[in-house]
Design brief:
Layout lengths: L20 H11 L3 E6 L2 E7 H4 L25 H11 L3 E6 L2 E7 H8 L12 H13 L5 E7 L2 H8 L1 H18 L5 E7 L2 E6 L3 H16 L13 E7 L11 H19 L6 E3 L20 E7 L2 E7 L1
Parallel strand pairs: 8-9
Antiparallel strand pairs: 1-2, 3-4, 5-7, 5-8, 6-7, 10-11
Helix pairs in contact: 3-4, 4-5, 5-9, 6-7, 7-8
Length: about 325
């Protein structure tokens, strides 16, 4: 298995805790990068991203806005584990540290293409790297895509009641029927996680929904040795496929991640519905808003830490 050392960037830009927000924002934008490690005395003490800095007072020191609980990886870390860590924490980069010394930075983008070539040995399906890359490429071509997120129901209980061997049979059986049901000309499938699968498709919303119905019926009808009839079921969430205007200035990778997130959330909510299939646009979005006259307008909040003491200034 390839390691982080083979993909990390070793020509490093860093920030210092006392540098201002303005200085670090300029460095990030000048070099077209999204984040920097913050070093003090040669040791990494934080991470700062462009997202953290936007909207901050320009002369505020970076130490007051940086992320202090920094996740790091070793150069010997497997790329699958490094990517899984970034994916689970929804972060875009990891400092690479060897015996306490910062030796590189690795990003999701650095690993994505390579991971797309890797497949799950149990199902022979690719992992999510392939799906993400294919979806981003389709968006770049101006194609419309939808994401189907298939989440098996109560899979942990299947493992507990019938054993992990039967659980593995369930995963391989579902993977096989999904692979046989899709059309290679319009669909890309992956094993997303333990009991989750995802499909990116260029089908219309109507045909994508029909595919979801077909897949769910096939999963429910699956016969798995060692499991009683009806033990296997799934909920399916759908996102995308409803764009009505052209995209401009789009961040393709972020759009793909958003679609996957929305489809995943829809699959969770679909478990509460009769059909067990739900489009993200059908999820409730109602938020109770108090009348404007009953609220206090906060114009600005400044938070700071100096010599271990915290301060907060609120302007109303």
């Amino acid at each position: 298995m390839k390691t982080v050392a083979e993909f990390m960037a070793t020509s490093l830009l860093t920030a210092a805790p006392r540098e201002t927000v303005t200085a670090v924002v300029r460095r990030l934008t000048d070099h077209g990068i999204g984040g920097l490690p913050v070093l003090e005395g040669g040791a990494i003490v934080g991470m700062v991203t462009l997202k953290d800095l936007v909207g901050q007072p320009p002369y505020r020191p970076v130490r007051e806005v940086m992320i202090r609980d920094v996740l790091t990886v070793a150069p010997t870390e497997r790329i699958t584990d490094a990517y899984a860590l970034m994916d689970s924490r929804r972060i875009g980069r990891l400092p690479v540290v060897d015996h306490g010394v910062l030796v590189g930075i690795v990003t999701r983008g650095d690993l994505l293409e390579e991971l797309g070539r890797l497949t799950d040995p149990m199902t022979d399906l690719p992992w999510s790297g392939t799906l993400r890359q294919e979806a981003a490429d389709l968006l770049k071509e101006g194609r419309e895509v939808s994401v189907l997120f298939i989440d098996l129901d109560d899979f942990g209980m299947v493992n507990k009641l019938y054993g992990h061997v039967v659980g593995d049979r369930v995963i391989t059986a579902v993977a096989r029927l999904l692979r046989e049901a899709i059309d290679g000309n319009s669909d890309v499938i992956c094993r997303y996680a333990g009991d989750e699968f995802a499909i990116v498709t260029t089908r219309t919303m109507e045909t994508a929904t029909a595919l979801a119905l077909q897949l769910r019926q096939a999963i429910v009808a699956t016969d798995v040795p060692g499991a009683p009839p009806g033990a296997v079921s799934a909920a399916i969430g759908i996102a995308g496929g409803k764009r009505s205007i052209e995209r401009h200035d789009i961040h393709y990778d972020a759009t793909v991640d958003d679609l996957i997130t929305m489809a995943s959330r829809a699959s969770t909510m679909a478990k509460r519905t009769k059909s067990r299939i739900l489009h993200s646009s059908q999820m409730p979005t109602t938020v109770r808003v108090e009348p404007a006259g009953d609220r206090v307008a906060i114009r600005r909040i400044d938070l700071g830490i100096e010599d271990g003491q915290g301060t907060a200034t609120v302007e109303l």
